[in-house]
Amino acid sequence: MKNILKSELIEASAPCRIDMGGTLDISTFHYPLRHFSPCTFNIALDLRTRVCLSAYNKGMVKVSSKGFKSVEYSIDTAPFDHSLGLMFAIAAYFGVQGVHIQIESSSPSRSALGGSSSAAVALVAVFSRIFEKIGASGLLSKKHTAMLAYAIEGSVAGVPCGLQDQLAAAYGGVNIWYWLDGIKGPCFKKKAVYQKKFFRNFEKHLLLAYCGIPHVSKDINGKWVKQFLSGRYRERWVEIIAYTHKFVDALIRCDFKYAAESMNGEMALRKKMTPEVLDSMGEKLVDSAVENNCGARFTGAGGGGCIWAIGAIKDIAGLEKEWESILSEREESRMLDVGIDSKGLIVQ
Questions:
Q1: Residue 284: which CATH number?
Q2: Per-residue pLDDT, 110
Q3: What is the pLDDT of residues 219-246, one digit of tens each?
Q4: Based on the domain organization, do 123 and 146 belong to the same domain?
Q5: What proportion of the chain, given as a percentage, has pLDDT over 90?
Q6: Mean of per-residue pLDDT scores for the chain
Q7: Is residue 176 domain-shared with residue 209, that is, in the same domain?
Q8: Which among 47, 51, 165, 281 counts the fewest CB atoms within 10 Å?
Q9: Are 67 and 103 within one domain?
Q10: 279-296 burial, b for 16+ CB within 10 Å, e for fewer?
Q11: Beta strands of the chain (E only): which ranges?
Q12: Confidence band (pLDDT; 50, 70, 90) for 8?
């Protein structure tokens, strides 16, 4: 492997995502609610996370990522509870040492766009390609790459994890994911909401804003899990499933006004359960969207990070100007490009 890394560059990249009906991809929720057909909608964005490897000191693994301090540990002592611990856990799974893992992301650090899961998918794919080149194992498919990244993340996260980020990273596109039990068959079913030829037009109905404050998904996700396990708000999660179905049905009909209304219904339920899901700027962005006949919600588990909006083209155009004004109140906040990714995972 070291000879390969010295002679050629092997890298992989995967897209981030925006979503609707998240959290339902966590088995804590979708197993008890399976009778209601739990699902999650997401859009893979052309904000890609790239991972490349280079040779490094024997016995050591170094990880460098924008927004984090570079760290290195011996493979035997690498901490999996570190902010970059997932990358060390993947290296440990493959039994790899003597490597420098370099991560570059087009999205802001900890922006709730699924960047860490995208990096995990890309890193698993890089190791898989190298192991194939040295004849140690076959190349993993996109599905198996996503499932392995998900399994490793779940093993070290310390909280229940969902699967939607890894699937968006692996497959790309605009999809609805139905969560199954995976006992005698698959654990998910993928349905494309739009084909690639419609992506350019669909982008005109979308906005994405970074609020300038990083999020920590386990804080709010953890609260939702505790509430659900204790028996609280389960009827609201059934409603969230219903709103997600209505949202997707509206998109299929290209009824963006009804899609916006469905998104706002889901957003209202989340706020009732966890008011802190929106920070002060997120509140302003969401309120502005509602006033302009658009829908808006946080990405991922919220609590900082990004807000995205959907609506008719005319309404979105007016909302964009208001959002730019709101975002100017905080130095770090800004609008982000909403280009839809159709390729998913790419290994070079």
A1: 3.30.70.890
A2: 81
A3: 899 999 999 999 999 999 999 999 999 9
A4: yes
A5: 87
A6: 95
A7: no
A8: 281
A9: yes
A10: bebbebbbebbbebbbbb
A11: 11-20, 39-55, 60-65, 71-74, 99-105, 174-179, 188-194, 206-210, 295-298, 306-310, 334-335, 346-347
A12: confident
Q: 55-106: per-residue pLDDT in tens?
A: 999 999 999 998 889 999 998 999 999 999 999 999 999 999 999 999 999 9
**Residues 73/36, Cβ–Cβ less than 8 Å:** no
**What is residue 217's predicted lDDT score, i.e. its pLDDT?**
59
Q: Rounded CA gap, 210 and 339, in Å?
A: 15
Full residue range of the structural domain in which residue 214 is found: 198-335
**Contact assessment for residue 140 and residue 159, using Cβ atoms and an 8 Å cutoff:** no
In this structure, are 89 and 20 located in the same domain?
yes
Residues 123, 177: one domain?
yes
Do 150 and 8 fall into the same domain?
yes
> Is 149 in the same domain as 54?
yes
Task: Name the DSSP letter for residue 309.
Answer: E
For 254, residues 6+ apart whose C-beta sits below 8 A from its C-beta are none
**Residue 132 CB coordination number (10 Å):** 14
* CA 52, chain centre distance (Å): 20
pLDDT surpasses 80 at 35: yes
Q: How many domains does the chain have?
A: 2
Look up the CATH number of the domain holding residue 174: 3.30.230.10
